[in-house]
Amino acid sequence: MQMPLDPATSRCFTRRSFFRYAAGASALASMPILTEAHLALAQRPHFADPNKGIHIDANENPLGPSDAARQAMIDIVPRGGRYLMNFQAELEEIFAKQEGLSPESVRAFAGSSDPLHFTVLANTSKDRPLVVADPGYEAPMWAAKAGGASVIKVPLADPKGAAKHDIKAMLAAASNPGVIYICNPNNPTGTCTPREEIEYAVAHAPKDALLLIDEAYIHLCDQPRSLDFVKEGKNVVVLRTFSKLYGMAGVRMGFAIGRPDLLAKLNYFGDNSLPITALAAAKASLLDTDLVATRKKIIGDVRAENLAWCKSQGYAATPSESNCFMLDTRRPGKEVMAAMAAKDIYIGRIWPAWPTQVRITVGTKQEMEAFQKAFAEVMSGSTAGLTLPKRKMSLRERPFENA
Ligand code: PLP
Question: Can you give the pTM of this predicted structure?
Fold first, then answer.
């Protein structure tokens, strides 16, 4: 039997150490690891028909896959009886070539959630905490907790202005962090952390700490990318996804990019063959040279129009460069979510550190016009005491009932 790699040493587990690790893991197995999809779904009062109403609550892209990606999926369907594992290597090579990386430093997954969870699980432990920004994307926290590691939340710097990661405070937050997670642009604020501050983090992070730079939304902004740190052999793993700009959240494809020895630590969690439809759609998306610029402009224009509208109505919003922003309702955000849901408009959740703010995903122009109309109506009346109706969760959903 081929034994999995020890996440700490990249060496193969012995049979005995494997079972010891597995026993420890099973003690924690009841702890779910939640993603954007789970967390958004947990807030929805009904889910019988996901096309009913307007969903600007999960940072999805309403444009869906590009035309070329759709055609590529249709074309590959007749070959669906085969694993075609060489398609994965081909996709990794195309991306590596486009970005000037070695193919060994790119690994494709069905979305970026898996490598996000695996990187946190492999590099944090009881004695090696996870450091995150707050408000920030919650998935790494769920993974750290599931693995028995503690989580240190560091408030965003300049919360009423740039709302960026407080890099110096994050570096000082723990003497021996396992992972420092930087989400750029940040979910939920859509704000970016300047390049020089990320460079500072790479240069000054405690030895052995892994910087996990999540670039799920990077295509939507003009900020410098972080792949050069991988080329330079730094202790950095960068995550990319096809779920956002490329509109493939339901199709599922993403990359972990890092030094081969850092990617080898993820082997412990298994290596599954990937859906060939998703591989084909991702390849077509990467080869479509106009796609990033076109979609960045479409989403950016709608975002700018909505940020200006919020300001004109007297509401502060974060200076987002992404497909979401936090909007300060100056009243309990949960009440506003409930009042909007009653109008069939589903807006994003609140973060406990910012209880009056709600996350708005940038939808289509028409969706956002409906949002503006409903929001103005909701805010002109009282929302006191409103709560989201609880829906009966299926067995599958139970683990995230109280998320
Ligand atoms: N990282 C961030 C910051 C996200 O917001 C999300 C999803 O919303 C993900 C990663 C995971 O996306 P996926 O697994 O669809 O690639």
Answer: 0.91
Mutate to test the pocket of ligand 1, among 109, 137, 165, 251 (most ligand atoms within 8 A of CB): 137
Question: Which residue has a Cα nearest atom 6 of ligand 1?
Answer: 36
Q: 131's torsion region: left (phi>0), alpha (psi -120 to 50) or beta? A: beta
Same domain for 124 and 180? yes
Of 287, 311, 334, the position where a domain reaches its end is: 287
**Number of structural domains, the chain?**
2
For ligand 1, atom 4, the nearest C-alpha belongs to 216
Q: Note whether residue 80 is domain-resident.
A: yes
In a domain, 7, yes or no: no
Give the phi and the psi of residue 154 in degrees, each rounded to 5: -115, 120
Q: What is the 3-state secondary structure (H, E, C) of 227-243?
A: HHHHHCCCCEEEEEECC
**311 with 248, same domain?**
no
196 lies in the same domain as 140: yes
Whether residue 1 is contained in a domain is answered as no
* Chain segment 223-241, per-residue pLDDT in tens: 999 999 999 999 999 999 9
d(CA 302, CA 277): 30
Ligand 1: residues with CB < 6 A are 35-36, 59, 111-113, 116, 137, 183, 187, 214, 216, 241, 243, 249, 254
- pLDDT tens column, 35-80: 898 888 888 776 546 668 999 999 999 999 999 999 999 999 999 9
The model's pLDDT over 233-262, given as tens digits with 9 standing for 90+, comes to: 999 999 999 999 999 999 999 999 999 999
The answer to whether residues 167 and 199 touch, using CB atoms and an 8 Å cutoff, is: no
Q: Which domain holds residue 323?
A: 15-64+292-400
